[in-house]
Design brief:
Length: about 350
């Protein structure tokens, strides 16, 4: 894969990578590894990273560090796979407020999105799981891609596009998309329906950057469905992590700021277009809903991969969702309502 040719950066310009944050220490360590790998590509350039919630440094603290280096112009890149509420509202609201208050120009870059690099990174993670398993025809294998899930249908649809590109790229017999929260179908009800298709092997791939309670939940629920269907081979592919092609995509996003090709897709944005079913959300104010969870300390139970013994994250995230307009399909029989039942 051809490396991105970086524009020469002025050392008076700082770079900020903005992560979501997690109470899982492993996820925080993984993000730090990713951020430092990106930093290595910009020697001599002031570089910081910060979190939206659940970890330190929070975004304003990372910006303070750059400001203390007399930086007056900052490129901020959201470490988000797709543009939903965090990338469209929470992060830019915080950046805009800080920039206006401190007289600093902050240029907001694009989310990682869909490109050849991200598709190739995902494909390699899936192929790693296949190579480590018993031989089974790809044509008789079902790929299930698990997205985070959000109240933004445009972001959710991008996960489905990822699924289709992977299915055709590798040649799976079938492919489906499920989600870990907020939207539908969720993992457990989704898998319960998919086992009826009759495939001898199912690969479950969490399209996530890092570990955490949601990845743990995906694996736990996959194990449960696998125990109900011993005749089917289930494989768990690893999440993306600090894959070199993911890092390359971050470099591409920084480069776009200088090339002028730094635009988000607004044609299907529920805040800018009369998107079917979400017409009431057009023009909603751009505000952050995360001030009350900024910098919360990591969970002492989560020294390694999340065990999901502590569900505080999900509880808090649900409260965040309630601060916005309610998701119109929250009671969908294959969706969020199943998180609160034994089904």
């Amino acid at each position: 894969m051809t490396k991105t040719v970086l524009h020469k950066l002025d050392p008076s310009i700082g770079i900020l990578i903005v992560g979501h944050g997690s109470r899982n220490l492993l996820a925080i360590k993984e993000f730090a590894i990713l951020a430092n790998s990106i930093k290595a590509s910009f020697p001599g350039i002031p570089f910081e990273y910060g979190y939206l919630e659940f970890a330190r440094p929070i975004i304003s603290e990372a910006l303070d560090r750059l400001k203390n280096k007399s930086i007056k112009k900052i490129i901020a890149i959201p470490a988000m796979l797709f543009a939903a509420g965090h990338a469209k509202n929470d992060i830019p609201a915080l950046l805009n407020s800080y920039g206006e208050k401190n007289g600093i120009e902050i240029i907001y870059g694009r989310e990682l999105g869909i490109n050849n690099l991200m598709i190739s990174a995902a494909g390699q993670r899936i192929n790693e799981s296949i190579k480590a398993a018993s031989s089974h025809p790809i044509s008789e294998t079902l790929l299930v891609v698990v997205g985070r899930g959000s109240s933004d249908p445009d972001a959710n649809s991008n996960v489905s596009k990822i699924t289709r590109l992977l299915v055709e790229g590798i040649g799976f017999g079938w492919g489906q998309t499920v989600y870990s929260g907020v939207t539908f179908p969720l993992v457990k009800p989704g898998l319960r329906n998919l086992v009826k298709l009759g495939f001898g092997r199912i690969i479950v791939f969490p399209y996530f950057l890092f570990s955490g309670v949601l990845v743990s939940r995906i694996r736990k629920q996959t194990k449960e469905i696998a125990s109900e269907n011993p005749n089917i081979e289930f494989l768990n592919a690893n999440y993306l992590g600090a894959h070199p092609l993911v890092i390359e995509t971050f470099l591409e996003r920084v480069n776009e700021v200088f090339s002028g090709d730094n635009s988000m897709n607004c044609s299907l944005c529920k805040y800018r277009s009369d998107l079917l079913g979400f017409e009431k959300e057009v023009g909603l104010p751009q505000i952050s809903h995360h001030h009350h969870v900024e910098g919360i300390e990591s969970c002492t139970l989560c020294e390694s991969e999340c065990t999901s013994e502590c569900e505080l994250i999900e509880k808090t995230n649900n409260e965040h969702e309630h601060a916005r307009l309610p998701y119109p399909h929250s009671n969908h029989p294959f969706g969020p309502v199943t998180l609160h039942s034994s089904n």
